[in-house]
Amino acid sequence: ATPVFESPDAPCTPSAPAGRLDNTSTPYYAEAVSVLKSVFRLTSFRQNQLEAINATLDGKDVFVLMPTGGGKSLCYQLPAVCKTGRTQGVTFVISPLVALIADQVASLREKHVDVDCMSSLRTADDSRDVMRRLRSERKPAICYITPEKLRESNAMQDILAQLYEDKQIARFVIDEAHVIQSWGRDFRDAYAELHMLRERYRDVPIMALTATANKTAIQDIRTRLGLRDPLCLMQSFNRPNLFYAVQPKPSTKKKVVQSIAGFVKSQHAAHTGIVYGFSKVECEDLAAQLRNDYGLSAKHYHAGMDSQERSTTQEEWQSGSCKIIVATIAFGMGIDKPDVRFVIHSTLPKSMDGYYQETGRAGRDGDPADCILYYAHRDAVSRHHLIISDRNDKGLARTPDEKKRQLEDLSAVAQYCRNVADCRRSLILAHFNERFDSHLCPKGCDNCSRGGTVFRQLYTLEAQQAIRLFGEMAASMDRIALGHFKDVYAGRNRAKVRESGHDQLSLFGAGKKVDGDRIISAMLDADIFAIAREASASGWTNDYLKLGPQVDACLSGSLPVELTFRDNGPSVGQSRSAAKNVVSSKPPAKAKGKMKAGPSARAYAPLFEDDDE
Ligand code: ADP
Ligand code: MG
Ligand code: ZN
């Protein structure tokens, strides 16, 4: 059973049904294989590449959905240098990022592919040269162009019209095609006008490629580009050889380093990996400690380093002389090291999209690799406050839209981390609108490793009691610290609780029998509660609980509060010491059967201990 996508509604040729379409018996196959080897110096096609190449050489429209790093470029670069099939003329590639264009052009030139580009990075002279070549007999095989250049340059429009008349346009390729959606985050005006390609150059086949697998988005892209009965090649985003886990983040920096070092030394002593940190300073500190205190071969990498230093570090890591790179997310674009055995996030990633891409750099060779995320509620709260503060990381004012989007991203990541029951793989894939049967993830993530079956339980009543308890407490207390509220709700009879007299309230301990802390987290996720953070005079920050916008919906019962559990997983209220004894072994899904060692034992602690104190 392969995971399935929600099927798009518009007519679309299904992706190569088994047995019907033999991609090795097409007239293009022999040349495609030979070009793959001679020009691209690769040995075999990845999933869907050959299908895309065959279809476009056949003059068909093609829609390719492939995760980032999946190998979309080859789908259009290879046919552009073939001689059989629909190859006459220039392949025009519309791509939104000038930096990406520059990379691809450089890499193609290294392979002696005749390629040119038109972007804002080029001088007017350069552009004139490119246009002169397009008019001449010596046309490039591929011409990259930004949508803006395509729209703004009248000369370019004239050239395209002439080329079309002379049947010298092989195909149009729309890379990062999701940019066309008007409601998308990366939307660019000029992409919206790409529908003119089909209108003006009716017979030129179009290939659209994206890594955004959202049903509505796919539909939208196809309609906007006017794709005609396209071959839709959509593949699962699942990475079966990656093991996903979320670890409770220890309370001090020192313990975090200790935990990371311990994990690396016990599981990946001689392996290459990436540790993602939040800030430049954090990365430098973390790398230094891993080096100095634990003797690990670690170096930092971030955008604040000069480019010479950056490329030296990257080369050392790439060649294996440095094993661990501790980096901000500036590290990764264009990284293609096959044998990355672990990716550790020392703090929350910015979004689920980001998490997928960052963890996606592990295990490209198909061998097992670990993806570990350290989560602490305090990190989520800090991030929240960073976002609602007025400046973004570039020091620019955040727009309300930007804030809203970033808060949504953060909330999705936090919910993922707090989920201790559902299969991580299905949670990640659900983010890309892909349904994934968690039975296909036997022990491929921490939650599945816990065994048992997932069940959900409603705690709306308990949530309503929490709101009432909050009301009772608020009658005698100005600001209610989050930790204090949790103690009172869970009925923890601490000195501070007794001092406040809150142990005398009728609802004291209302969340005692259930998992009170998780209910509060779920209520925070659902905006029933919210957090206000205040800096105290001593420089510490305090988190106070307040009511959120959804409080009435919860009280009226229209917004149910639900938790997921595993029926024989570790009970979440367990103490830290009891939790340490929970050990599950996992042999990650063997992708190519190349895994050497047997199952390695890993310890998982429940996530909902109080890490806030
Ligand atoms: P995408 O655009 O889908 O994110 P790219 O086209 O940039 O991905 O390719 C990612 C990496 O995969 C590149 O380094 C490329 O060389 C490599 N790659 C692509 N196709 C193959 C293949 N058939 N075999 C091995 N490596 C490949
Ligand atoms: Mg790409
Ligand atoms: Zn799983």
Automatic annotation (TrEMBL):
<dbReference type="GO" id="GO:0016787">
    <property type="term" value="F:hydrolase activity"/>
</dbReference>
<keyword id="KW-0378">Hydrolase</keyword>
<feature type="domain" description="Helicase ATP-binding">
    <location>
        <begin position="53"/>
        <end position="231"/>
    </location>
</feature>
<dbReference type="GO" id="GO:0000724">
    <property type="term" value="P:double-strand break repair via homologous recombination"/>
</dbReference>
<comment type="similarity">
    <text>Belongs to the helicase family. RecQ subfamily.</text>
</comment>
<dbReference type="GO" id="GO:0005634">
    <property type="term" value="C:nucleus"/>
</dbReference>
<keyword id="KW-0547">Nucleotide-binding</keyword>
<dbReference type="GO" id="GO:0043138">
    <property type="term" value="F:3'-5' DNA helicase activity"/>
</dbReference>
<keyword id="KW-0067">ATP-binding</keyword>
<dbReference type="GO" id="GO:0005694">
    <property type="term" value="C:chromosome"/>
</dbReference>
<dbReference type="GO" id="GO:0005737">
    <property type="term" value="C:cytoplasm"/>
</dbReference>
<dbReference type="GO" id="GO:0006260">
    <property type="term" value="P:DNA replication"/>
</dbReference>
<dbReference type="GO" id="GO:0005524">
    <property type="term" value="F:ATP binding"/>
</dbReference>
<keyword id="KW-0347">Helicase</keyword>
<dbReference type="GO" id="GO:0009378">
    <property type="term" value="F:four-way junction helicase activity"/>
</dbReference>
<dbReference type="GO" id="GO:0003676">
    <property type="term" value="F:nucleic acid binding"/>
</dbReference>
<protein>
    <recommendedName>
        <fullName>DNA 3'-5' helicase</fullName>
        <ecNumber>5.6.2.4</ecNumber>
    </recommendedName>
</protein>
<feature type="domain" description="Helicase C-terminal">
    <location>
        <begin position="256"/>
        <end position="411"/>
    </location>
</feature>
